[in-house]
Amino acid sequence: MAKKPVKCYLVDVFTDSPFKGNPALVCVLDEEEERDSEWMKSIAREFNVPMTCFLARIDEPDTAVVNPRFHLRWFTPLALEVELCGHATLAAAHHLFANGLVRTETVEFSTLSGVLTARKLPDEAAADDNTFYVELDFPIIPISDMNCAGDDIPAAVAKCLNVAAASVVEISRTAKGDLFVVLPSADAVVAADPDMDEIKKLSGKGMILTGSAPSQSGFNFFSRVFWPKMGVPEDPVCGSAHCALAHYWNKKLGKCDLVAYAASARGGVLKLHVDEDKQRVLIRGKAIAVMEGLVLV
Fold first, then answer.
1. Prediction pTM value
2. Which residues contact 1 (CB under 8 A, 6 or more apart)?
3. Per-state percent for the chain, helix, strand, coil, to nearest 5
4. Which secondary-structure segment (H or E) carries 283?
5. Same structural domain for residues 163 and 249?
6. Which domain does 11 fall in, by range?
7. In sequence order, which ranges of 99-218 are alpha helices (DSSP H)?
């Protein structure tokens, strides 16, 4: 028997303009549908966007569960399943809210990182109700307090970014083991010319690059994120990286509320709130659907 076609939606995230922000493919599975991991990996390879996610409603027998809950899995273009993805989670939530598929203002996702929540929030500056924010409740990813050990690390990082070693202000690691590199300014972040082959040689999944935003820009910091080992040379707007970026800039600037600009070619804007007591980061952004279709196989 032929399998039922699967609905899929391409959503641009952390933007309200099409073809900006970070694209994610949202594949919606029926509650009873069982698609195995190999099929999911094939779809991720086929569409080759920064992240493909698979969404399936959970029937909750527990009456204590107030909000609708969904299974959510994320795969990179190399068909690698990841533990945490911000922009694809926001894409999935936006799809549910924008199409009236849930009646509540909050949804929950059962993931490899536990249960994550997303809230629909009004955009008070918008003229219509169809424009809204989605706010994700994610865990903080701490940054190491010490610079990376080893005299070769600064030189290797500078080589990866094609910048002078002296211009690298700080190098540390996230709790996930990724390199966290601070440059002296947003201009330096934008101007960096990364060599993906060199980045692949470094330990860890990839590199997070950041610098302070210009005054009067409306932003607190700029960032760029590189995951070539994962099949995403430059992640246009990486939501999960801001779990570490928010932690760093909260400590650096002494601010709980931050506005971030992802300085990739596509660009993207994130509003952040850091809750140190709960060790959580609220990540807020917009999204826009740009395509819908069916996977027939």
1. 0.95
2. none
3. 20, 40, 40
4. strand 280-285
5. yes
6. 6-138+284-295
7. 152-161, 186-191, 196-201
Residues 130 and 250 in one domain: no
For the domain that residue 121 is a member of, what is the CATH number? 3.10.310.10
d(CA 122, CA 129): 7
- Measured from the Cβ of residue 187, the count of other Cβ atoms closer than 10 Å reads 13
Q: Is residue 262 part of a domain?
A: yes
Residues 208, 190: Cα–Cα separation, whole Å: 13
pLDDT in tens, 224-260: 999 999 999 999 999 999 999 999 999 999 999 999 9
Q: What is the mean pLDDT of residues 76-86?
A: 98
Distance CA 237, CA 225 (A): 8
3-state DSSP call for residue 47? helix
State how far the Cα of 280 lies from the Cα of 120, in Å rounded to an integer: 18
- For the chain, how many residues are written? 297
Using CA atoms, how far residue 10 sits from 25, 40, 107, 134, 281, in Å, is 5, 16, 20, 16, 25
